[in-house]
Design a protein that fits this description.
This protein has 346 residues and is an alpha+beta fold. The protein has two domains: 154 residues, 60s Ribosomal Protein L30, Chain: A; 167 residues, Phosphoribosyl-aminoimidazole Synthetase, Chain A, domain 2 (Alpha-Beta Complex), CATH 3.90.650. It is 32% helix and 26% strand. The strands form three sheets. Strands 7, 8, 9, 10, 11, 12, 13 and 14 form an eight-stranded mixed sheet that branches. Helix 3 packs parallel to helix 4, helix 3 packs parallel to helix 7 and helix 5 crosses helix 6. The longest helix has 18 residues. 45% of the residues are buried.
Length: 346
């Protein structure tokens, strides 16, 4: 990162350098190794730009994501370390959806002067934890002062050439799968908004919203085994993201509602109108994987991959419609009601 302007920005940059200067990436079950990451990043923070390199036979994968106060997080509700964790996790989830592994990232952050101390330190603590967990080094970025918090993260990853998974490979007859449990993050957001006295980090019903875990191990396994025909991550909700996958593949789909892995709700929440099916269909921020598999390869799929459950929830069709059916044989069009920043509020 290159310092510009006053010494106050230099102080922000120094906090970032200190936070990441001693970062050592660990080897995990998903094969993230510090040696591979250090090879990818030839020159990191401290110069005008970073230098990256990749091994022969590999492709570089690039993605970026905004994380904005008031849009993607609530400054009065979300702890700063969760903001740091999640801003990287969101972008890394796109890497996982390609069957790739993240290697380094760029951080651009704008924030008011009053948050450039303790809040920034907590933010960097969460970001550093995420970087270590995902095997991803900070390569550089930019900083500036602004009244509201604006964060942009760009992640560079790599995937073996020919093993990248796109949205456009689904074909009629393919089975549709999702990972994990859908609707957990949306339920967590609702619970967080209701809390008057903060939250406990031991509350597991909040963790998926605050500290999501991109499915890197699962994405890489599906890519390396060659069993998946199309894939993307579930960031905006199944009803919206499934339509995007179908549009890219020029196909349709039918989802069986009774097969969806839904979140458990309390009796009180149910009485308040919290519907697990609606959360699973339209809730965002789960960062699970949505993927399709040829029927003749479905038997090769275990129930768990890297500790994550995978569930068959429907089938790809020739028609371009995206449908939902229930156990009684009734069906209808599945409307896209997931997250859309440009949709007008009703």
């Amino acid at each position: 990162m290159r310092a510009r302007g006053t010494g106050s920005e230099e102080d922000v940059l120094e906090r970032i350098r200190r936070a990441f200067g001693g970062l050592r990436l660990r080897t995990g079950r998903d094969g993230l190794r510090s040696k591979a990451s250090s090879r990818f990043l030839s020159l990191g923070m401290g110069d005008d730009a970073a230098l990256v390199s990749t091994a022969p036979g590999y492709e570089i994968v690039l993605t970026c994501d905004w994380f904005l106060a008031g849009t993607h997080f609530l400054q009065d509700n979300h702890p700063a370390d969760a903001v740091g964790w999640k801003c990287l996790a969101r972008a890394v989830s796109d890497i996982a959806a390609m069957g790739a592994l993240p290697r380094c990232f760029l951080l651009s952050v704008a924030l008011p002067r009053e948050l450039a101390g303790a809040w920034l330190d907590d933010f960097l603590t969460g970001l550093r934890r995420a970087a270590r967990k995902f095997g991803c080094s900070l390569a550089g970025g930019d900083t500036t002062e602004r009244r509201e918090v604006l964060i942009n993260v760009t992640v560079a990853g790599e995937v073996r050439r020919g093993r990248e998974v796109r949205r456009s490979g689904a074909r009629p007859g393919d089975l549709i799968y999702v990972s994990g449990c859908l609707g957990e993050a949306e339920l967590g957001l609702r619970l967080l908004r209701e809390r008057k006295r903060g939250f406990s980090r031991r509350d597991v019903r909040l963790r998926k919203h605050l500290y999501p875990g991109p499915r890197l191990g699962l994405g890489r396994w599906l890519s390396e085994k060659g069993v998946v025909s199309a894939m993307m991550d579930l960031s905006d909700g199944l009803s919206s993201d499934l339509r995007r996958l179908c549009d890219a593949s020029r196909v349709g789909a039918v989802i069986q509602s009774e097969l969806l892995p839904t979140v458990s709700v309390t009796k009180l929440e149910s009485n308040r109108g919290v519907d697990p099916l609606q959360l699973a269909l339209h809730g965002g921020d789960d960062y699970e994987l949505l993927f399709t598999v040829r029927k003749n390869k479905a038997k090769r799929l275990p129930r768990l991959v890297d500790g994550v459950a995978i569930t068959a929830v429907g089938e790809v069709t020739r028609t371009r419609e995206v449908m939902i059916a229930d156990g009684n044989g009734r069906s209808g069009v599945l409307e896209s009601r997931g997250w859309d920043p440009f949709r007008k509020s009703k």
